[in-house]
Structure formats: C-alpha cells, structure tokens
Amino acid sequence: MGRKVILDCDPGHDDAFAMMLAVQHLEVLGITTIGGNCTLENVTKNALKVLEVLGRTDIPVFAGHSCPMTVPLVTAPQFHGETGLDGPVLPEPAVKAQEKHAVDFIVETVMDTDDVTLIATGPLTNIAAAINREPRIVERVTELSIMGGSVTYGNWTPTAEFNIFVDPEAAYRVFNSGLHIKMSGLNLTRQCCLTGEHVKKFREIGTKAANLAADLTDFFIGATVKSAELTGANMHDACAVAWLIDPSLVKSAQMHIDIELKGDLTRGMTVCDYRHLRGVEPEIDLHREPQMAFRGEKPNAEAGLELDFPGFMELLYRTLTNYK
Ligand code: RIB
Ligand code: CA
Fold this sequence. Notes:
Number of helices: 13
Largest sheet: 9 strands, mixed
Bound molecules: alpha-D-ribofuranose, calcium ion
Strand content: 15-25%
C-alpha cells in the first residue's frame, strides 16, 4: 500500500479522477471536502457517490468549510454543472458523511499518525484552518501536494487560478506556514488534456470506474470547450495525486512561491520566483548597485513544470482497468 494520505477536495470532475487514482494507489485515511466547484453539501455528496462507484465506502468522508476565510464563496457551475458533478447519472449515496468536522479530522489524524501526506485539490481553507488550529501539524506532515496556482497564467483571472483565487488568504497562510508544498499549477495541468479518443478508450475498458471516467470526461470536455474555448478537458487535480504515485511523471523546480492578496489585477496570483534558476548570480558590489540587493526568499515549494502525459495516461488506464 502506498503512502498514507488525506485528500481534501471539491468534486468536481477532475477531483473525481484524483480520487480514483488515490484510492487505488495510496492509503487514503479519509477524504475531506471543501466548498469550491460547488456548495459544500453537493461536493460532499459527490465524494460519497464516487466512493460508491469505486466500491470504497470504507473510506470516511468529512465535510469541512462551506466558504473561504474572509470572502464569499465563488463556484464554477459553468465547468462542473449545478450539482458539481453533472454528466454521470449516479444514485443518491447510501453512506453518509461523518459527523466530525474535516478540520478536526485532519488535525487529530496528523497528530496521531506519523508520515501523513496531505493532498488538496480545491481551495485551501480546510488546510489553513487546520494549521491555525494546530501549528504543530506543519512539522509532522510529510508534505502537501496541491492542485492550484500557476507558474504562468491564470484561468479565473488572467493571473489567478481558481483554487487560489477562491481563498487567497488561506493560500497565503499555507504557503507561508513552513509546509513543503508540491504545486501542480495550471502550467503543468494544462498538459493533462483529455479528448474524445481517451473517452473511447475508457469505454473499451468497460469497468464501472472506466465508464464513470468516460461520462465525467464527456461532460467536462463539453463544458470546457464551451466556457474556456479549449480543445479538451484538463484533469487538473489528478496531476497532484499522480505526482505522488510516480514522481517520474513530473519534472519540477524548487522555488519561492507567495500569494498576492492586494493587487487589483493580481489578487490570488501565485508569485513564483524563478530568478535563482538563472544560475549563480555574478558577484555584485552592493555599494555600486544597491538595487540588486534583493536576492529573494529561500524556496518553499516545488513547482511542477513538465508532465509525462503518455505516462500519466498509462497509469490512469491501468488504474481504471484494475477497478472491478
Ligand atoms: O483551476 C482548476 C481547479 O479548480 C481544479 O481543482 C478544479 O477542480 C477546480 O476546483
Ligand atoms: Ca478541484
């Protein structure tokens, strides 16, 4: 069994793919949900529905925060539909979510269990709240793998990616907490673009999980093409899990990343300091060139830069085939 993880998500079509990969290849101690793609009630119901299709109702689901720390919730019905998981027709979940709050589950589990990795594929509100509740989780967590942000462009604004944009204050807390972060940003996840040929392959695999993948992708392609004029469905969240399952799938670079909170045009931007990648800075005379004094902060994150998409698809096909 792979590493012990808690998956915090807002299913969400691509969150469902993250779940399919995590449940089979990692030891999922629990799934926590966060308002994001859709309301907390709907994303929680969607997580329960996906676990039922996968035959894993043994994995507990804990509902978390319904809205960001300081601003109203923004959802994404144009991409995920009114239910948050439009497309597949799934029965009402037979199993209910746990009574315990997601943040309590995250804090208690990390304090009681060694070597837990956190994965977050929605806004970072639950993760930030857990750090605020118990700062000691920062040194106990192995690392945090997120889908969020971008080393380049945004998708919700020209500079901000949706998960960070929904709750920038939470993202700021997480990126400045001392946690080691693997960031699967849009610059990476846009390389994970599924089209009709992949849907056809899912249908050929024919398992319940593969048919769910086909129905999800079909809807997501239609919504993405219509709303974002892209050529296929980007399975953003699955990258944050695949990177943990097979590190060879992602080429990355360590860098300092911080979150812009104030900019009219840049609020929610992940500001990534690439400068140290230029190589060793020439010695400079600070008396002559004081403006060159700013060296930037030490790296606090690993930003995904290149995805081995064929390798990712091979992992996904193998995973969907293995679900009975
Ligand atoms: O910007 C993409 C992210 O926003 C993904 O996590 C998707 O599920 C949505 O939450
Ligand atoms: Ca998501």
